[in-house]
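Inverse folding, one chain.
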């Protein structure tokens, strides 16, 4: 059997040891898994959702928070609507320059930063009815994170204009204490590495900048934090490209996709997808890129605007399995990606998704409707979405090979190996490396489990299109013979 190898669009089609196309699929160890459809989960916000966050309470229940350019919301479990819990007066985020809501939680508090045009917001779950300003002395910020017992902000305005290379943090175990020099609250400027483009918390702070990555380690008074430039060969190119699993941080640099492990960066897209992405990404919409991780599936995923987008909105997903170090791509429109802990649906609340049980996006026992269950999702337009729909149609195309060196060959049978669904097979043909590939359709498998062909030429590649309720695509077997020279 010819196993479907990893997607390697940066390599030549001829003698490609992987596959030249892996669309609407998820990388697996010996082939590709299906990708579920991106389906609505909530009612509508006022505008395009610019931030999404989920927290899990001590009792196991989940709460979902979202925000658009003018409001902040909480998902309502009774009717699946998005309830406006904005502070009085609302907000004015400017999405055209990349402003979006970024959330963290500190204990029972949800904290939201919306850029330098908005005061940082706080919401005490189970107590507050609306958001309020975190503190009069807190800066406005593009980025927010929790590092040990501190709330950190980066790329800030502390009251006298934006300082894009500044980090500022709260007092020790006090999210409302921001007076510099008091209670260990302070700031740090790193002025020779460009603007800060990302901030990741945890036991230490990872500060991604345009030309470096800085790590801040807690030392206690009097220095409080020790700042080290641990990566100086490159920095983060696009703020929306940053996502992480623990202290493994994924980001896009000038020389491609990287993973930073706290000590150094490793190239994860070189000679695989970096060159493809540079050609496919419409950089005029780089501020619309978003990224997140799905730890359960061991995936890092980026949503971006491609050069084939007809409306200037994100239309593709790059999918990276960081355990297998394999990639795939999906043609799915998603303005935002985020993992979720679901809030429980009532039977009445299901009406907001569909008025008919038969047309619900998932079965009634799905985790989609259970409170506190992990789901992978995001947002498209003014609604929260989840990847809980039926499997979407996937396409996998092998690399090209000459079945008989220097001679024409004819493929007579293809045996597809897959689990579930229906396949449609075709063979790509060309006579010289400069010819345009012409695909010859063969259709679905017959009663004997193969697709008959009479596909003759010097170079061949095989395309599998798999649809319906499928779960796995392994590879193919072919029968071929040489037919002589011409």
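Residues assigned per position:
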């Amino acid at each position: 059997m010819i196993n479907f190898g990893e997607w390697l669009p940066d390599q030549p089609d001829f003698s490609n040891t992987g596959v030249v196309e892996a669309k609407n699929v998820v990388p697996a160890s010996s082939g590709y898994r299906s990708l579920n459809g991106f389906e609505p989960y909530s009612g509508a916000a006022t505008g395009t959702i610019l931030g999404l966050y989920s927290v899990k309470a001590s009792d196991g229940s989940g709460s979902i928070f979202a925000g658009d350019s003018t409001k902040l919301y909480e998902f309502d479990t009774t009717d699946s609507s998005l309830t406006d819990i904005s502070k009085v007066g609302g907000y004015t985020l400017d999405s055209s320059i990349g402003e979006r809501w970024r959330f963290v939680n500190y204990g029972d508090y949800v904290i939201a930063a919306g850029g330098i045009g908005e005061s940082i917001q706080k919401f005490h779950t189970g107590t507050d009815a609306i958001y309020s300003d975190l503190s009069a002395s807190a800066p406005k910020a593009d980025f927010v994170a929790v590092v040990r017992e501190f709330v950190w902000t980066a790329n800030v305005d502390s009251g006298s204009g934006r300082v894009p290379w500044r980090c500022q943090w709260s007092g020790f175990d006090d999210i409302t204490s921001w007076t510099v020099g008091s209670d260990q609250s302070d700031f740090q400027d790193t002025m020779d590495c460009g603007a800060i483009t990302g901030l990741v918390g945890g036991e230490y702070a990872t500060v991604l900048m345009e030309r470096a990555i800085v790590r801040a380690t807690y030392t206690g008074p009097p220095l409080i934090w020790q700042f080290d430039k641990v990566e100086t060969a490159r920095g983060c190119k696009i703020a929306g490209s940053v996502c992480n699993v623990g202290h493994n941080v994924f980001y896009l640099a000038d020389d491609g996709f990287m993973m930073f492990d706290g000590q150094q960066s490793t190239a994860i897209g070189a000679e695989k997808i970096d060159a493809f992405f540079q050609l496919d990404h419409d950089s005029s919409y780089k501020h619309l890129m978003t990224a997140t991780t799905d730890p359960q599936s061991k995936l890092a995923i980026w949503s971006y605007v491609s050069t084939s987008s007809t409306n200037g909105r994100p239309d593709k997903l790059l999918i990276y399995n960081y355990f297998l170090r394999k990639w795939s791509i999906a043609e799915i429109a998603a303005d935002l990606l985020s993992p979720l802990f679901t809030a429980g649906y009532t039977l009445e609340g299901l009406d907001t998704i569909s008025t008919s049980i038969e047309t619900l996006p998932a079965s009634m026992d799905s985790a989609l409707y259970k409170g506190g269950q992990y789901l992978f999702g995001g947002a498209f337009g003014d609604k929260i979405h989840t990847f809980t729909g039926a499997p979407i149609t996937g396409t996998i195309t092998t690399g090209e090979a000459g079945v008989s060196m220097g001679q024409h060959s004819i493929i007579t049978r293809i045996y597809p190996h897959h689990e579930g669904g229906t396949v449609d097979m075709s063979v790509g043909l060309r006579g010289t490396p400069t010819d345009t590939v012409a695909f010859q359709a063969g259709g679905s498998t017959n009663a004997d489990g193969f697709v008959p062909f009479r596909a003759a030429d010097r170079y061949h590649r095989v395309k599998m299109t798999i649809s319906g309720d499928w779960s796995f695509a392994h590879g193919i077997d072919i029968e071929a013979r040489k037919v002589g020279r011409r």
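The chain has one helix and 37 strands. Residues 2-32+393-484 form a domain with the Jelly Rolls fold (CATH 2.60.120).
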